Amino acid sequence: MTEPDLPQPPTRDLCGTMLVHRRLLNESMTYRARRAAIENRALQYERGRRSPVRSEVVTVPVVVHVVHNPAVPEQNIGDDQIHSQLAVLNRDFRAANPDREKVPEVWRPLVADAKIEFRLAAVDPEGEPTGGIIRVPTDRRSFGFDDAVKASATGGSDPWPTDQYLNIWVCQLGGGLLGYAQFPGGPPQTDGVVVLHTAFGTTGTAAAPFDGGRTATHEIGHWLDLYHIWGDDDGACTSDDKVADTPNQADANTGSPVFPHVSCGNGPHGDMFMNYMDYVDDDAMFMFTRGQVTRMNACLEGVRASFLVSSHALAVPSRPAPAGPVPSGAAPAGLTSAGPVPSGGAAGVPASAPGAAAGAAGLHQAAAPGQDFGPVPGPAHWPAPGAAPGVTDGAGTGVTDGAGTGVTDGAGTGVTDGAGTGVTDGAVGQAARPDGEVTRVLRDSERLVTEVLRDIRTAIHLVGGDRPGG
Q1: Which residues are registered as beta bridge partners of 171?
Q2: What's 352's DSSP letter?
Q3: Which of 7, 52, 229, 441 could form a disulfide with 297 if both were Cys (CB 3.0 to 4.6 A apart)?
Q4: Are β-strands 166-171 and 58-68 bridged in parallel, bridged antiparallel, or unpaired?
Q5: CA 292 to CA 88: how far, in whole Å?
Q6: CB-CB contact of 360 with 397 (8 Å)
Q7: Distance (Å, rounded) from C-alpha 244 to C-alpha 108?
Q8: pLDDT digits (tens, 9 = 90+) for 18-50
Q9: Helix, strand, coil tally for the chain in percent (to 5)
Q10: Biased-composition ranges for Gly residues (predicted)?
Q11: Are 62 and 121 in contact, with CB atoms under 8 Å apart?
């Protein structure tokens, strides 16, 4: 494969998230409308007009795509390195990292537990057991921030359904990039996080000063709608990260600064450079704040709400062996057959396994690992802006917002936002839950669906208002 001449970010841009964000803002009116609705929701949480629903820990299913060039064997990182990264994430997002004690005393009351944990997926999109790690060889020497690593057609690996899995691509990045993420509200085909293999985890190829696993913590912060703590205004002190309890600061900090480091008149305590959303070395960042956790909650209960109510990717399916030969067309013992598997369904999924009815429930059906999605998905492959705000009926089975941000009712079994931005509810995946938890999930889902619909109406209004003559 011939690699195109890609624009490379400046080497000081260790994170490419804002480069992706600005590209999408420039190219897609749909993305601008989605981001406006997401910001509106986050502001309501920050001002107390909405309160977080959840009080329990949410576990996010993760699939790691190791995209490696066989000519450079170290790019094919080991399982131990991947598991070391998951361990870091589960400490950092639970405020259980031992180095949190290094947070200056003035800010220790702000250190917050996000109540988010991460686990490698146990079930793949087809309902089959998995270890949650995909290894894909490539002939590319490196990747940039153009999302090529996220599609097999461009030398990468196709994502698993991004409303059910956090997709993390680990590869060789060029241009000085440590990683990048896609903010919520972008195209589902490219949703997820990309990390340089030498900045991933704490063992194997991980290299100082980025061998503490904090690059993934930082990028997943973006995936959960956190901005850089300095507001990306190139030192102007006119913008911030939209979080009230993080001090305004002039620019990114690097290395291992000494407290206090004052900028933008933020003395006497100065920059909160030890925050995960700054650019300091891994061993110099230790915390998320309460305000940042509130913003993550706004994201998880809005655009990424599917991760709150669908955990089937974490449950290993039970497949008892049949007692004897299985007649042609019949289901083995332990499986329920209701006839031929419909197009888009998952053949061989136990009826009791959460997500078995994913096709009927309106969940995203994505390609199995290795299936080709075609050209790199991007704004050019989204619905035309003219159709974005419209609401259409999908073959009589429910309601789908044309922008991909609406709600699809799949055969009456639940409610799913088509872009992975909404809520999955109903019978799917609830059989194994205790009755009390079912009641709680259904109640919470009802509220979340109402709020998602309100956000959709806001987005439709914004898109419609941007159109000439609209």
Answers
A1: 196
A2: T
A3: 52
A4: parallel
A5: 18
A6: no
A7: 16
A8: 999 999 999 999 999 999 999 999 999 999 999
A9: 30, 10, 60
A10: 393-423
A11: yes
Q: What tokens appear for 251 in the block?
A: 């620019």
| Residue range 374-422, pLDDT digits in tens | 333 333 333 333 333 333 333 333 333 333 333 333 333 333 333 344 3
Window from 74-83, 87-96, 399-408 with minimum mean pLDDT:
399-408
H-only helix segments in 244-316: 290-300, 306-309
Any idea which of 76-85, 115-124, 281-290, 418-427 has the lowest mean pLDDT?
A: 418-427
| Residue 427 confidence (pLDDT) above 70 | no
Q: Phi first, then psi: what are they for 185, rounded to 5°?
A: 105, -10
Check 219, 437, 446, 451 and give the catalytic one. 219
Q: What are residue 407's DSSP bridge partners?
A: 417
List Cα–Cα distances, 40 to 114, 220, 291, 299, 303, in angstroms: 21, 21, 15, 11, 12
Q: How far is CA 353 from CA 220, 313, 424, 432, in A?
A: 28, 10, 15, 8
d(CA 448, CA 404): 17
Amino acid at 47: R
Q: Residue with structure tokens 């940039």?
A: 144
Query: Going by C-beta distance under 8 Å and a sequence separation of 6 or more, which residues neighbour residue 348?
Result: 126, 127, 128, 335
219 a catalytic residue: yes
Task: Say what the pLDDT of residue 13 is.
Answer: 57
Domain coordinates in residue numbering, the chain: 17-300
Cα 258 to Cα 240, 289, 403, distances in angstroms? 22, 20, 47
CATH superfamily of 17-300: Collagenase (Catalytic Domain) (3.40.390.10)
pTM of the model: 0.71
CB burial of residue 261 (10 Å; 0-12, 13-18, 19+): middle
Q: Pairing state of beta strands 415-417 and 407-409? A: antiparallel
Tokens encoding 253? 């900090």
What backbone torsions phi and psi does residue 109 show, to the nearest 5 degrees?
Answer: -65, -15
Closest CA to 195 of 23, 31, 313, 77: 77
Place of tokens 């409308």: 33
CA distances for 152 relative to 132, 170, 196, angstroms: 18, 14, 18
CB 16 within 8 A of CB 232: no
Yes or no: say if 358 and 428 are a contact pair by the CB < 8 Å rule: yes
Count the Cβ atoms, other than its own, within 10 Å of residue 288. 29
Mean pLDDT over residues 238-252, rounded? 95
* Beta-bridge partner residues of 180: 194
Instruction: Decide: residue 391, CB within 10 A, 0-12 exposed, 13-18 middle, 19+ buried.
Output: middle
Closest CA to 418 of 438, 437, 397: 397
